[in-house]
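Q: I'm writing up a methods section and want to include an example of the input and output format. Could you take the sequence below and give the corresponding predicted C-alpha cells, formatted cleanly so I can copy it straight into the document?
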Amino acid sequence: MALRTGMPVMRLALLRGFALCADDRTLTLPQNAERLLTFLALNGGTLRRDYVAGSLWPESAEGNAAANLRTAVWRIQQAGGRVLDATRTRLHLAEVVAVDVLEATALALSVESRAEPDAGAELLDLLDSELLPDWYEEWLPPYRERWRQTRLHSLESLALRMARAGRFAVAVDAALAAVRAEPLRESANRCLIQVHLAEGNVYEARRVLELHRQAIRADLGIEPSAQLVALVSGSRHNGALTMR
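A: Here is the clean output for your methods example:
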C-alpha cells in the first residue's frame, strides 16, 4: 500500500526483539501496549475488543481487562504516528505498518517459486531469527511454533537452492542455521549433508552424519534413518549429487 505524503514510515519488528519505529525514530511504549500491537500483528485482520482483552488478560475480570485494553490503546495513540485503527468495538493494526515477521514469512514462502537465487543472504538473515525470544506470554507459543516451522522448511529449501546455484557459502550457512534451530531434526542434517556433498566435501558430510548419530542416540535412543546413512555411503561411489 502506498504511503501518503508526509506520513512516517512505520515498522514493527518482532524478530529478535520488539521495536516500533517511525522513520528513523524508535517509539517507546509500555509493556501492555507492546503486547497489544504484537497480538494484533500476529493475528492479522480486525479483531473484536472483547476478544483481544480476554486473550491478553485472561485472568482479569472482564471490566479490568477492558480497562487495561483502553489504557494500552490510549498509550499507543499518544506515541506518535498512525499505528492502530480503533473503533468502539474493534481494533486492527494500521495498514501502513510493516511487520518484519510477516514480510519474512511471505518471502520465505516464496523460496520455492523464485526463478533465480537472488536475495539469498538477505532471506537468510531474516530466517536466522527467533520470534520475540525474551518474551514469556502464555498466548505466544503457537505463533512461535508457526514461525519455527516456516523458517526451518525455508532454511532447508534455501540451502539446497543456493547449492544448486553454486553459492555454497550461503548454502552452508542456511543449512547450519536450520541445524542450530533444531539439532535433532533429520531433514535439517540431511540438508547440510547434501550441501557438503554437492560441494564435494565427503569428509564434512560424514562428520555431520556422525554428530547427528551421537546426538539422537543420546537424546532419543534411536539411529539415523537408513536413507540418511545410504546418502553418505553412496557418496563414495557417486561423483554427482541429485538434490531434492
